[in-house]
């Protein structure tokens, strides 16, 4: 009896452990243009349509890879023509005439025509559209297609950022019916298989009109757990991580010469946003005092170590109107006390419950206690933030990450949640959009950016780092990932 | 037996409907609005209103509930609010990960727990009896995700014999890779599950060991092993069977938790994402399927118990 039991116990344990005998990584990795690049990411698309709530994941996987726009935003923030070969703007700035590049084919084999472009722009402006770009586009009066190679767009108002915004509008096959699970674009990759919750595969489009992809294809591997993602990189299950979100995990790659940690530029700003319409923040000196009382650099270092930067205002370095404004309302607790003039203040800080907000809120609380300001931290969920803060404007101060580039323009909208209302700034921002030249636009937005910094419209705590960690065998990957795009066609594996 | 079956089936159906109501109401009590999560910063109030209309979340709760119930009755679990893809196929696509994971973990847990539990009881007087019992106690106290992380560190990061997580793009088409990626998750869930099972098996065996019928069997000349094998195991099986049904349900929940540690594309990932995005149809769908599974397994467990124990078949 005893022997049988012991044997049974031993057998079941052996069974469990015997299964562990297999090998981990496969030894069939190919190099050069036959290689398939394994990409790890936390951002799985919701669906494959960026006008139907596909989220940042769909931009990362498909933008520039499967779909292309008339223009493209390069990794260093420049706008270049892509499917548009030529553009003409009328003198009043209201009519744009685009000539399409000839002989471009969709993956399905259909030739690109102006009708596809028209359908693609209309999908973004449609009433049902959930595109993030919808609200930044100017009112479009009409889109005409006089011939297959020409698109004429008439605007209701002048808009200097129209061409820039077109770089976010994907040109799809206008005859395609299902864009949520299929994709028919003109890009260097065709959509392969999408295993939801797991992987999305792209394969090289050998009939591509431009320079063909330098690898045979890419597989995006999706993770919900940052540790699992990092483990995948450590075990070579993935070659590169598009955006490292856990600062603590970086040390395991920094000391290891099999990996390279790339410190790129992001457009994500962490804000301490005041409600500029209610007390005590309707008083500009209070806002300036609070901004001067918080040591942004120290906060950044405590969260991200040597990564990330402080920028002193809303504009990140990749926007053309960037200016280093860290010296405006710089850290100076003595000056803060002076500005407050011995007053004691108390305010409630609505803090989103997810990282890094609670940590940052605690830091702010202790910094402000030193100058006699009491902070009550009120932790809220992301959803409550949208309802309470964003929609009802029912708050004194809050924290939020603002991820988009070129989003300083929100300070020109007095109805935006932070309630900053300065006629001059609104005027400059409106004029900038109507500007005739990029230089004029840049000058006006610089002016606006400086003014909001002086007014301490918000306290811009820091700019997030954009960290791409990759195997040293990999080269040619984008490091800035502006607005979550990740061009994969230049990546090679040795 | 037939009357019992009918009664038990009625209870099963009743519980399912009740579960559906509770699920629906609880989800709606959470603060927040899916339209927000969908559109993000920069959305105008008009856009949010339009999204709400399109999603149907502007209708009164009762209407929303009846709509959903009518759909469920026709096996249509609705469309995700976030991805606008149908929920049913999404759940079915996740089953090839969650079901094998749950079943293998359960089988391994039983294979480990039954012999070890019996051993811990019959050898309570030897040194390893209490030691086995203590190890089982420890196993209950340890959370599954921690065991998972530990196994990843040892077998994936140090020894490099198994993948740290993920599932092959070809799924079960690449059988070897798929099986390999399930080894560590299965061991994780099985270890944690067997810890509590061992304790049940041990106490059930101890009860039987102290029983009159076993003493009688011994008095009639059976050896300890014979007595235990012929009379003891069947008696000990009754409480264990009831527990097994519950354990299978717990194993399923354990699998759902462990999936995210191992980046497996199963129901767990779907559920976690659904919750964070206020995607009601997805959360409802996954929870309803899980609840139904647990209830049906409980139902089968009750039946199995009746078959194993003739005394239960007599109406009191």
Quick overview of this protein structure:
The complex is a heterodimer of chains A (494) and B (316). Chain A has 13 helices and 18 strands.
Q: Any overview of this molecule?
A:
The complex is a heterodimer of chains A (494) and B (316). Chain A has helices at residues 2-18, 55-62, 114-125, 162-166, 226-234, 251-254, 284-293, 296-304, 333-340, 357-369, 382-391, 423-434, 438-454, and strands spanning 36-41, 71-73, 79-81, 84-89, 95-100, 140-147, 150-155, 189-195, 199-204, 217-222, 240-241, 259-274, 345-352, 373-380, 397-402, 458-471, 474-475, 492-493. Chain A has 494 residues and is α+β, with helices and mostly antiparallel strands. In chain A, the strands form 4 sheets. Chain A has a 10-stranded mixed beta sheet, with helices on both faces. The longest helix of chain A is centred in the first third of the chain and has 17 residues, at 2-18. The model of chain A is unreliable at 1-28 (pLDDT under 50). Chain B has 316 residues and is mainly α. Chain B folds into 2 domains: 2-73, no CATH class; 88-313, MetI-like (MetI-like fold, Orthogonal Bundle), CATH 1.10.3720. Chain B is 77% helix and 0% strand. In chain B, helix 7 packs across helix 10 and helix 8 crosses helix 10 (224-261). Chain B has 12 helices and no strands. The two termini of chain B are 13 Å apart. Chain B is globular, with a radius of gyration of 24 Å. Classes of the chains: A alpha+beta (494), B mainly alpha (316).
